[in-house]
């Protein structure tokens, strides 16, 4: 008999007594019917993917200068502010700059201005206007303004980075599918790869919806989070494999119930892993925004925070429910489920 408010490992409930949320999380007794409500989570994940794909297709991405090409002007910040800098650049060029941001802290603060590709004359005129307006003086006592970026080279380089990312992603997915098929079974491979695709689409969709700038650091971070998502999924699948080993001969619980129990047993571990993974990234965000200014660290931290959250969601609410859905097409699983239900119906009629 179960303790009050718990659910037996065979999926049956104990005495109907209230039990705290934290107790259910820590005991991992299968109190959360995640697999049993898989249709709800399938609809939810489908809606999320649809929204993200729609944003990617119709809204697109905000690509950084490394992908689109252009010119970047930097100078010591001094007492300059982004509004005044943008005004000077717009009056000089006749067009608004793409971005104006202050990076760094203290005497190391600099202003970064990104524009479309400028000619040598336009670069010279903009530099002269900024010098006259702000008198930027570096620590050495000399004016320090530089222009970098070439439209054709940047677009070519951005295309190469994108191509290499796609190749790396395909190779990673093939390796993951092969490993999980050998370690577990092909259905787990399919569910795990679907969860990875969900993570990539969702993370990319969030970037598109919120208009975050896509930089090389974003690409690196996106590939990094796939490892985290896979780790979390494999942990859950390992527990599912342990619980369902020999389940074909069991008459006490179905495959779905044992899989749901496995998710519950690893739920607290997933929460701890996600929390521990996000905390240093939040610290990195604080450092990037308040101390060093907006830059590569911010791009890297944002994509990993979004990816870790989506990876945790997919490993709990998508991968295992999808595995169970695929498994229920297996004739052996169907027979075992029918045997368990028939035994319970008989026991209920006898009682």
Automatic annotation (TrEMBL):
It is a multi-pass membrane protein. GO terms for molecular function: protein-transporting ATPase activity. The keyword Mitochondrion does not apply. One of its GO terms (cellular component) is plasma membrane. Part of the Sec protein translocase complex. Interacts with the SecYEG preprotein conducting channel. SecDF uses the proton motive force (PMF) to complete protein translocation after the ATP-dependent function of SecA. Forms a complex with SecD. Part of the essential Sec protein translocation apparatus which comprises SecA, SecYEG and auxiliary proteins SecDF. Other proteins may also be involved. This is Protein-export membrane protein SecF. It comes from Dietzia natronolimnaea. The lineage of its organism: Bacteria, Bacillati, Actinomycetota, Actinomycetes, Mycobacteriales. The gene is secF.
């Amino acid at each position: 008999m179960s303790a009050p408010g718990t659910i037996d490992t065979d999926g049956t409930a104990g005495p109907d007594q209230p039990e705290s949320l934290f107790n259910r999380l820590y005991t991992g007794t299968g109190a959360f019917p995640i697999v049993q409500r898989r249709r709800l989570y399938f609809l939810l994940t489908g809606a999320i993917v649809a929204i993200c794909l729609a944003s990617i297709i119709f809204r697109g991405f905000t690509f950084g200068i490394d992908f689109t090409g252009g010119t970047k002007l930097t100078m010591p910040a001094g007492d300059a502010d982004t509004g005044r800098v943008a005004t000077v650049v717009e009056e000089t060029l006749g067009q608004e700059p793409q971005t104006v941001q202050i990076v760094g802290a203290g005497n190391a603060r600099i202003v970064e201005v990104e524009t479309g590709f400028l000619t040598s004359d336009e670069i010279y005129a903009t530099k002269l206007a900024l010098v006259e307006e702000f008198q930027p003086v570096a620590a050495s006592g000399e004016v320090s303004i530089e222009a970098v970026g070439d439209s054709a080279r940047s677009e070519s380089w951005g295309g190469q980075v994108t191509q290499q990312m796609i190749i790396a992603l395909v190779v990673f997915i093939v390796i993951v599918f092969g490993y999980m098929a050998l370690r577990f079974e092909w259905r787990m491979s399919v569910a795990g790869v679907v969860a990875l695709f969900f993570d990539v689409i969702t993370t990319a969709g969030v970037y598109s919806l919120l208009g975050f700038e896509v930089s090389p650091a974003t690409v690196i971070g996106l590939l990094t989070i796939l490892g985290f998502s896979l780790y979390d999924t494999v942990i859950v699948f390992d527990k599912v494999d342990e619980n369902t080993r020999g389940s074909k001969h069991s008459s006490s619980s179905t495959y779905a119930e044992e899989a749901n129990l496995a998710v519950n047993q690893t739920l607290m571990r997933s929460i701890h892993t996600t929390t521990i993974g996000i905390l240093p990234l939040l610290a990195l965000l604080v450092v990037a925004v308040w101390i060093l200014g907006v830059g590569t660290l911010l791009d890297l931290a944002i994509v990993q925070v979004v990816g870790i959250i989506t990876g945790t969601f997919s490993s709990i609410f998508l991968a295992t429910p999808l595995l169970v859905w695929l498994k229920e097409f297996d004739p052996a699983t169907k027979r075992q489920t029918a045997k368990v239900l028939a035994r319970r119906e008989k026991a209920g009629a006898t009682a």
